Each structure stands twice: as C-alpha cells, then as structure tokens.
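Input for the complex:
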Amino acid sequence: MLRILATLGALALASGVQAQTIKIAILGPMAFVQGENHWAGAEMARDEINKAGGVHVGGRRLQIELIRADTNESNSVPDATNAIERVITRDKADFLVGGFRSEAVLAMQEIAMDYKKLFLGAGAAHSKLGLNVEQNYERYKYWFRIAPTKDVDLVRTLFAVLGSIGQQIRTDLKTDTPKVAILAEKAIWTEALVAAVQKNLPAMKMEVVGTWQPSAKATDVTAELSAIERSGAHIVFTILSDVVGITVGRQMGERRMKAVAWGINVEGQKEEFWQATAGKAQYVSTLDTFAEVEMTPQTVAFVRAFKARYGKAPTYNAATYDAIMILKKAIEQAGTTEADKLIPVIEKMEYVGAAGTDTWDKRHDLVWAVGKTAGIAVQWQDGKKVPFWPPSVKGMQPFKMPHSN
Amino acid sequence: MLQDILVTGLVNSGVYALLAIGFSLIFGVARIVNIAHTAFYMLAAYCFYALLTKTGLGFALSGVIAVAAVTALSVVCYRLVIEPVREHESAVLIATIALALIFQELMLYSFGGNYLGIPSTLEGVVRVLGVSIPYQRLLILVVAAVMLAATWFFLYRTRLGLAIRATANDLEVANLMGMNVHRVAMASVAASVALAAVAGVVVAPVFVVDPFMWLAPLVTMLAIVVLGGLGSLKGSLIGALIIGYVEAITVFALPGGAYLKGAVALGIMVAVLLVRPEGLFGVAFEEER
Amino acid sequence: MYWLRRAWAELRDEVFVLPSRTLALVWALGLLLLPLVYDDPYVLRILTMTCLFAIFAASWDLLAGYTGQVNFGHALFFGAGAYTSALLSLRLGITPWITIWAGAAVALLFGYLAGYLCLRLRGSYLSLATLAFPLIALGLLFAFPEFSGGELGISGLRRLANGPTPNYYIAAVSMLAIVLGLWKLADSRFGIVLHAIRDDEVAARASGINTLRYKLAVFALSAAAAGFSGALFAHYLRVAGPSTLEVALSFQVVIWGIFGGVATIYGPVVAVFILYPLTEWLGSFRSFGELRLLIFAVIVLLVLLFMPRGLTPWLRDKLETACPRCKQRNRAWRSVCRLCGAPLSGADAKIKPA
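Predicted:
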C-alpha cells in the first residue's frame, strides 16, 4: 500500500516538476532597435498564443514564457556568449530566438549547438550560419534562420528591383544605359555583393561608373558624393548597414542630388531614419520586410497591431513573431517539445507568416522567392516609407524620381 | 578633384582644431590627459538636440545654453572627481575614462542607442570653386576661426590668460608668485570644455548623434595633439590642418580605400613621433622630481 | 619526507607570515578546487573569462607599472595572439595546443616592434602612440578581408578541450602559472632594474644599465603573455574577431590595472576578479541590467576617490605594515618586526610606508 502511494506521489511530483510553461529565450541587443524589435515581436506572439489557451503538447496546454536576454552583441561578443550560456543553464530555456550581429551569432550558434537547443535566427544574414548546417548536419541541425534571407539571396532581390527602377529611368530620361554608382560600406559582407553587382550590371544594360567604399561608421561622405555627382550617375546603388546609411541619406538630400539611391540601407529601414537625416532623406529607397501591404493575409493585421501597441512600425527583427508561431505549429504537429523531433517537422514545413511564406532548404536557410520571402522595397517620401515593389503584392505605390519633380 | 580636397580638408581641419586646441590647453596647464574631452563634446550635442526638439528655443539660444551647461558641468566634475586625485596621474587618467563611460551610458539610457539627427542651423548649399558646400559647414569654419581667435585673445591679451600660460610653463613658480593655481586650473578646464562644447553644438548637425560618437573623434584628436606636440596650441592647429588634409586626400584619392583614413592619419602620427619624439612643436617636459 | 618538511617550513615562514600571501594561497587553492564542489557551466564560463582577462591585465601591469610605459593599446597584443592562433589552426589545421604558443610568439614580435617604435617616446606621447597601434592593425585587417575575415573575424575555431570544466582548468592553471611567473620576475633583480628605469631613466643609464634592452624585453614579455591570453580567448569563444583589438578593450585593461594598483602584478588580477564577475552579475538583473556599464564606471570612480593608488595597496596597508628599519612587511597587528626585531608601532615606529 505504502509503495503504491509512494509511486503515485512520485508520479504526481514528477508531473508537477515537469515544465508548466515553454520557455523561449529572446536574445538581442536590447538597448538598440534590433533587440527592441526582437522582444516586441516575441511579446506579440506570446500574448496571442497564451490568450488563445497556449500550445497543445500531447494532450496538455502549455503557456509560453519569454526570457529576455540582453546580449549587447553590438559592443561585445563575450557578453553575447555569456548571455546565451546563462539562459540555457540558469534560466533553463527550451528554445532560443533572436541574434543580430553575425560575429556574435556565429559564437552563440556554437554554444546552442553544444547544448542541442533549437536556435532560430532573426537578424544575422551571414551565409556561414547556414553553411555550417550543410557541412556538419548532425551538430548544426538545431539552427534555422527565420529572417532575413541569407546575404547572397539579398542580391537577387536587389537586382529584381534595380531592373524595374532602371526601366523607369530609361523611359523618363530617354537614355539607353542608366549609369549606376556603387556605394558600399567596406565590410566583408559587402565584398561578394559588390562583385556580383559589378559583374551583372552590364548584362542588365546598365553601366557601372565607379565603386566607392566608405567606412561603415563614416559620418561624412562628401568626397564620395562629389565624385559620384561628377560621374553623372543616375542610380546610387547602396550596400550599407550602419551609420553611413544615415550620412548618405542626409547628404544626398542636402546636395539635392539628381541620382536616386536604391539598395540595402539598414538604417533606412528604421522609422527613426527620417529624423536621423533631419528630414533630408527624400527618395532614399531600400530593401525592407514589413509594411502595410498584403505580402500574406496576415501581414497587414500584424503591422497594424504592432504599430498600435508600440507606436512605430516593425523592423525585420520582429520576425521573432513568426519564429515563435513556427515553433508552436511544429510542437503541435509533432506532439512534443523535443528538439530532435521538431527538426524534421520544420524542415518540411511551409509557413505563412507575417513577414512572408517560409520554406527552408538543406542549409536551414529560407528559400528565396519573390512575393514569398524576398521582402519588399520601400522608398522614403515626405517622412513615410512607401512600399513600391513587388508589383504583384497589393498595396504598392509608384516609385518617385528626383528628376521628376 | 583638387578643389574638393582643398575645401573638404579645410572644413575637416576646422572641426578638429576646435577639439584639439581645447585638449591641448588642459594638458598644457593641468597635465591632465582628458579622455572625457570628446565626451563633453557629445554631451553638448545631446543637450543642443534636447533643447531644440523639446523646447521652442531657437538655434542660437539653445546653442548658448548647451555650451554654458556643459561648461558648468565640467567645472563641477573637475572639483568632485579630478581635483581630489590630482597628484596621482594614473588615477586621473582612469577617472576621465570612467567619466566618459558614465556620460556615454547616461546618454544611452536617456536617449536610447539610436542615431539622432539634428536639423542644420543653416540650410542650403553654396558653390565655391565648383564644389558645393552646405552652409552648415561654412558655419563650422567661421565658428572655428572665431573661437580660435577668441582663444588667442583670451590667452595672450587677458590677465587670466597670462596666469594660465604661466601655470602651464611652471606650476610651482606660478604658485610661488601668488597665482591661485587651483582657480587657474579650473578656468582652463572651463575654457577647454567650452571649446569642445561649441564644437559639439556646431558640428553635431553635420554628423549623427549617438552615445558612442565620442570614440572616433577622440582617437583623431589625440593623434592631432600628439602630432602637433602636447601642450602647444600652435602645434594643435597645424596638426589639425595636416590630419584634416590627409583624411581628405585619402578619401578623394582612393575611393575604394576611404575606410582607411583613420589608420592613415594614425600612421602619420606614428611616423612623425619616430622622427620627433615630442611632436612637431612639443615641449619636452623635464621630469618633475 | 625532506621535501614535505621543507614545503611546510616554507609555507610557515614565507606564506603564512603575511596575510596577503595567505589570502593569495587560499584564493589559488579555491580556484583550483572550485569545480569539484560547484560545476555550474555558467559560473565556470564567467571564471574562465576572468582568468583569461587576469593574464591580460597582469601583463599590462608589467609593462605599465614597472617601467612606466603606460600602454593604451595593449589590445594589439591580445588581438595578435588571437588572430595568429586562429589563422594557423583554421587555415593550416594545426592543433590549438601548438598554435596558442605560436600566437604568443607572434605577439612577442609585435611587442618587440612596438617597443622599438616607442623607444624614444616618453610619458603621454608613448601612451598615445600605443593607442594608435591596434587601430592601425585594425585598418590593415579590414584592408585584407579574405585573409582576416574582415569585420566578422575568423570563426569555427577548435576548442582546446571539450566541456566547461577542462576549459576552466586550462585557463585557471595558465593564469596561476603566468601570474606567478610575472610576479617572481618583477620581484627579482630584473624588477628592481625596471623600477629604476621608471623612476629615473637617465640615472639608470648613468649607472650602466642598458635601459633599451630592458624596455624592449619588457615590451616583448608583456606582449607574449597578452598574446597567450588572446589565443586562449579565441579558442574558448571559437571566434577571433576585430573586437579583440578595439579601443574599449585597451581602456578596460588600463582601468583594471590602475584600479587594482599598478606595479604590483597581483593588483590588476584582483581588480579583474572583482570587477568582471561584478559587471556580469549586474547584467543578469532584468531591471537595471542595461545600466551595468554605468554602475561599473561609478564604482571605479568612487573607489578611485578613496583609494587613488588602487585597491590592493590600500588593502595591503590595512593588513600589513613595513618595518621602519629593514623595510620588510609584517602583519599589521605585530608589535615587533619578525626579521629584525625593531618596534613596529607606538612612538618608536617612525617611517610609514610610502
């Protein structure tokens, strides 16, 4: 009798001790926009899921609990590795979501793989993260990238949009080969992109008039812009991820340059860009992820709800929302929270999220497709980010040129 | 291209001169390597930004208040933090580093890590020798020239300036002559930070404002001051011109190598130091026994 | 048996007589025995990093404290060690156990070069010139991104050992060995010469000391130790990036050095062991974790105001006094010197430690 009671008691204790919540750690530079968006997107997912009752795991419903981890990765890679180790060993996180700075995410990935925890990336674009999965599947299979598409795929989107802008210039200015000036920050992630652009533009019937590479932290690009003006370029192809994006936007506006800026300008994706350029960044256009357009049936609702709750539009880091929803779908499909069982489920999944329609390749990177994962293109007009590409998505507006005014 | 280099170099030099002269002044008088010098520059920029956007005061008034506030703060910091540890050179050093970190974190906490843009005081561009220069940069040049002239006047035509120069020359004898060395030190701290604050107010609209904006100018300014010779105002001015032009040449002559301008400037500084260990116009300080 | 008795005699006569040495012994034993009682991987990670940074800080003190060449760019040697070991182990496939020594060797060369460039510089000029070196190195690294990995650095490095505890032991043992070595060096005739060079180089030269050789040697030695810690750091994090060369790291080691007390070797080690876990611990608080750098800076400032010579000299003065006659240190509560018998307190004790 006593033994039965003891066993029953032990069972009860065991189930009580078993996690009542699913712990998801959100890792990001919380003092900066990227981390804020990581957290905001995650919060929205958590509240939505918990309000609907939680996640179904094999007969039980579990609530989602978020752990906020400030990695401070923009300033210190060891801080990020300390943070991830802390959330795994101290806070007992079940899943890891986030990351931004590629150098730090590479280090964090190692630790996550050591502990065999699922790590969903929502910020770093470096191909090596996916390459690791391909080269050493057994160790790195726990990594999936939810946003953005890997760096080489970004080029394909850039060319697609460049083609349509080039066409607009051909008609407006009656010139056969638009001139393009490449303005890329000096960094390793831009090397391959710059080379690709230089190689492919002639095939697209556009002429590369020069390549300028300021420092990523440059606060003055007068020299570059003077030279670009003198070269007579129509398009300034930007590949910028840091402060220099703001400098370019502002100084191009101050000089009232006739050329239009298109490309990657990560600072240009933030709401604060207009203020940071003192209102001068008219016509600056960049690749982006979220806008109030129907990329998927969920996008508009998500962006509106985000704006209502946080007062500003989401950046691509808010794809943590999609990441958590993907986890939920995988857990409910597999009936368990065990990472090894979830991996094949996610690999085969096609997920319609707020940012796009996601499927994954053998590197656990997003499969690139226009209208699904390629993102959108936006242009700053009168203080607002106006989406203008891809034309197949509802809600797009026309692209404006400086010379048309 | 030559005109571009001439004009850009001149404008850059103006900015650096404002910062370098202030730093040189403090070092010459008080033998303090003030790592927080550019942090005060950052504070002035933030103060200017806050006043401009949160209150309705115009550019001129916001600028003046920002400069005055930061100067006052610097004197307070000096009294509270630097003066007690004046005798220990190394302690002073990390006290200034700690101060700079505190300012950085306070700005990070109050304003966030985002880049902020300050509207230009003067809009529009002007074409000089075929180069278009925004009026704001001309303003920087004018202000730099005016402040340099004012500093020269202050140091060479006023009694307090005389006291400062005397203290810089020989602290003990100046003390013996009856000058209140503490007050002179405070005055030079105030003057030096005022110069940095003016730089912050005038230059910030041209660059972006963020809590880490004090690091890059710090390195360039140190390079200039060392190049020109610590404690020599003429040296700082010449150093600023040299480094300003070197950077302009690097950026214009090597479009793919613009990111190297910092390293090139520093390389030049090291090269000069190899030939003249005290900088171009520096004074070799006798070991104070 | 003889050795045991000899060891016990040494302990009793050399170590236990001074509270500071006893504390050091207790601390060293504690470090070595910790994983046996408490092996939380997070805590071990923090302590591993602390040990590595302690080596780094101690190496700085040898250079800055003992010869007065305050180095504002010590991160150059750290980064040199990290990158060398990373490149050799990743590109050439050599085992990390060998490449860390290669990293130290390359850092030693860098130290020699930096020392050579700074031979004629004094005081603040030297400090600011050294500030420039890592930044120039950074510029060069970015100029050759295929070689150096640009802003991403070199990733995917092999660990020296697997698991938190072995890595911890590697770091802790290295730290104890290097710090002890440096301290013994500083405490020897070599150290006395260094003190002489710092206090008055002209007089030292006039006494026939080849100050050039000593200054270069110290630069090289200090750089080698820093490079070793950099290499260990790279293999621990499995990434060697430009963050190993940045100005913030150079400033950090200056803060640790001066906070702990220059010219002591153990001072900066104490500083690292207090400040690094403290900032980490502050960072784990959700409410004010983001303010941890601010709190760190305020703590440093406050401590400086009360202990301008650094933390450890102040602590040592509380625990020990120097004998006015033979200048050897004694426990503060002793009444007569343990070596020469001179009275330590009261009206007869005249000279207080400097």
